Amino acid sequence: RSAGLPGADSAMTLALRSLDDERTLANGDAKAQAAIDLQKAWLQITVGDFATVPDLLASVEKEAPLTDQAKARFDGWLKLRRNENDAALAALQPIADRDPGAKLGTGMALEALGRPKDAARVYLSVIQENRGSVIGVYAADRLHGLVKARPGPTPEAKAVQSALARLPQAVPALLNDQRQALNCSLSFGTPP
């Protein structure tokens, strides 16, 4: 679990409830239920109650066999969550270059093994390859825990920040006030 992410516990509870609701709505569609169970297994193994994962995976495998890569990822993460860090590293490292979840787990195993510099390099790689995804955000939080700094914004984010800074001060107020019936169109570029 990541203590650095505010509201993580309530978000986890909400996510699990949402997946349970989706599973109920799938009402007998075994393939849809297996897909939901796979999502739930990933959520539980990364930040939840990992003890539920073997049963969830067994449910999934009844409908659709997992790939060897998925099996290796879940096996490595189960070992990671059980603090079998050497075994987790051995399971995750071979697939880390093609599997973001395995790469994140590799960083966590390295961190747990007392190799913070190696872990930081792995986290940074995960962040760069997965910006904007949950895995990228989680890796950024783990990296922050190690180095007490966050990676800077991408060039695109800097351009957006710069564009927003040039807006007249009234524009954000207009955009944030839902009571005003105003259609606002903005364009950025070099003035004529």
Written overview of the protein:
The protein has 192 residues and is mainly alpha-helical. It has ten helices and no strands. Helix 4 (68-81) packs parallel to helix 6. The N and C termini lie far apart (52 Å). The model has no long low-confidence stretch (mean pLDDT 85).
- pLDDT averaged over residues: 85
Coarse morphology: globular
Order of helices and strands: HHHHHHHHHH
Helix coverage percent of residues?
55-70%
> Care to count the β-strands?
0
Note the main sheet: none
Low-confidence stretches: none
Radius of gyration: 21 Å
Amino- and carboxy-terminal Cα gap? 52 Å
Query: What fraction of residues sit in β-strands?
Result: under 5%
